[in-house]
Amino acid sequence: MPPAPSEPARRGAALELLVHGVGGTTPEAMLDDPRTVRVTGDETAAIYRRAADRDAEREPERFADGPVPEAYCWSGLTSGNGSRALWLLLLPFMVVNLAHWMRPPTQRQATAVRLYGVLVRLVALSLTVLLTAAACEVALDLVAWQCAGSAACAGSRAWLGFLAADGGGWWSQPGRRLALAAVPPAALVVLLWYLSNRTWSAYEAQRPPRGGPEAHGMRPDGTGAVPGEIRPPLGRPGFWYGRRLVARLRAAHTAAGLLTVAAALTGAAAREDRAEGGGLATALGWALEAGIGLTGALAVWAVCRRGRSERRLDHRLDRAQVTWLPTAAGTLLLLSAGYAAWSRPGWRSFGTLPGDVTFSVLTTAQGALVLAMAAVALRLHRRSPGGRTVLYGLGGPAVAMLACALGGVMTGGVSQRVADWLDGPATPGTGQGPIAGPPVLLSWQASVIPVLLVLLLVPTLWLAARTAVRARRLGPVVEAEYEGERPDPVRTRRIAATRARARLTDAAPALLGTVSGATLLLGTGAVAGAWAEGAVPGQAFAGAHPFVRAAAETAQALGSWLVGLGFLVLVTWGRRAYKDASARRTIGILWDVGTFWPRAAHPFAPPCYAERAVPDLAWRMSSWTGRTGGRLVISGHSQGSVLAAAAVWQLPAGTRRRVALLTYGSPLERLYGRWFPAYFGPAPLGALHRELHCWRNLWRRTDPIGGPVNLPAEGGKPEVDHRALRDPVVYGRTPEHPLPEPILGHGDYQADPVFAKERTVLLDRLPPALPLPAPRTPEGYEDEAPDSGEGGGSGTAPGSAGRSSG
């Protein structure tokens, strides 16, 4: 890394810290210069300057008319190397993690808040069990039990010859086949544990910079708030430090996954032993099942016991849970494999393993948990109504239901495709092929997909019609804004249509509510249908009208095909993104939005990039203002504005007085304020407005993502929002603009002359530059001794780069 530039004392120094939005960009594009140098950071996230500005603090006369620009590039945190494409398979885990942060705001319902967090974590745990159960369904049931037990299926596949039941080899016994087939599901769980542990060491286990207790609204001993001041959640010292919680959740989820595999092995062998009569094998089966049940209860208890610690930097680890819980589960899995491999010469495999019960219980439990979440969320919303919270506080339960639906689609997709591959030309589950097929519930879950698509067609057509009508009505409004210009119907229609389409973002809550509600109802019907068909195999529609029976069978077949297609598309996207950097950046946009939040519900979700980016920005702002006494404006576009606001919240009060915030194309209120009201609602954003010396927000009516933050003038400060910027800047051709100007929408806010003007106004409103302070640690920040706990923050993991002051 190049050496950091020197920054001697220069009164009047000013800095603009640029933070890009979703999808990322290059420092050359951000600084509008092909020659840039890295000031501080690494290949993952770093701060850049133009080469000519490297020692700008030594030449303040060059910047009398404006600040020194710096660019913070963080796209490597979400769309870096090819392995990030594999995160696409973790989509349900990421979605359920979002549900944790969507609870309604409250100040007096601590019990309800804790209960909401417990319910979300239990839904997340059910997704881990569901994923592992799907892997067991494929490996143990479809391959080892059904295909290897069928001469017609195993005979056409040479790679299954040594497992074939009629081969007479050592592996031909069903229990031994199951023990060997348990390796892939167990390896999947171990892989998830490894990835979670590696990212935990690089993100959650890295200590963020922290201020003195008073700077964070805490008493000097760190035990509570300073009287009269309550810090917003994102300003708490432990908000971006989830080391303890993620370690505990990782242990519990790893144990739950391994226990799922152990239960599948033990259950199959124990049923055979109990059918043959009592004895040592039967007693051993009961003992193993009891051990699995007890360890599973401990895993659930670990998930429910404690939530996040945000009011302090919690350096402790629950070592007993982190170490012994996965170890006990792994030991039980090994014992279960040995128990299943016990010689049982008379055991024959036929039919299917009892997967219907497992998937039915999981689906029912997920629905019950989501309904409980909805009840708690409604209670919280009724106690603190107001703002523009989506779905009246039900955004979190709706997103949790969506995560369960995604998990079901992936589970059913892989099971249906593998069964179709093994069954050859026959249709799985019809009894016409060599195998019985996947559980009936998975086929029923697939059958609801065509119905769901038909239900979505109605609101989609309604939104399209409403957008067309709105675009027609906006025509006169657009022409009125460009008074004095000669009307151009084509130009007017184009601008009006762009504005109308930008409003579609506000319809997302209604669509999500429709999808989640329909998924819950149709999922209930799928469980009931699977139960009826399981009670009387093949006769679920025997008494129905022929048209109803034909429609149901068609829906099942079409849904099975759509589920398999969806899974294949998901895998194809991941493979393409692994090889293609541009596709990886496109998928990275999804992670930019979804992985802003820490892993509070699911430890196997993709890691939170803000746990690196927010400390980076806070360190840079504090170190630069502390060393130069100058003024700083942090300028954030789109998702960068969210990072900028979160970093400003983390600043000590003294540093915050020397920082101005400029946001543009910002989703702070339009998206984050509505979907995450407890953290970006009117109260937290209003507190940020009061704490900052000055803040300005730029927005356009053609922007589908950004919008106003709706904070009025308060305490002598002007309102935050600038009036809506014109887009395009010029309606028609002029001498200054002889060619038609583009409609910019969400991008290129710097092209508007208002941008530079508002940045200058912000800098002028900041207090005059201070004399150079004595060399010391940046204000409010203190170095800490190395952590002696597990996975401590030693080394050069990404989070450590923020310690460089530049």
Automatic annotation (TrEMBL):
Biased composition (Low complexity): 797-806
Highest taxon of source: Bacteria
Region annotation Disordered: where it falls in the sequence: 205-228, 766-806
UniProt KW keywords: Membrane, Transmembrane, Transmembrane helix
Membrane-crossing residue ranges in chain numbering: 85-103, 115-135, 178-195, 251-271, 283-304, 324-342, 357-378, 390-410, 444-465, 510-532, 555-574
InterPro entries named in the record: AB_hydrolase_fold (IPR029058)
Protein name: Integral membrane protein
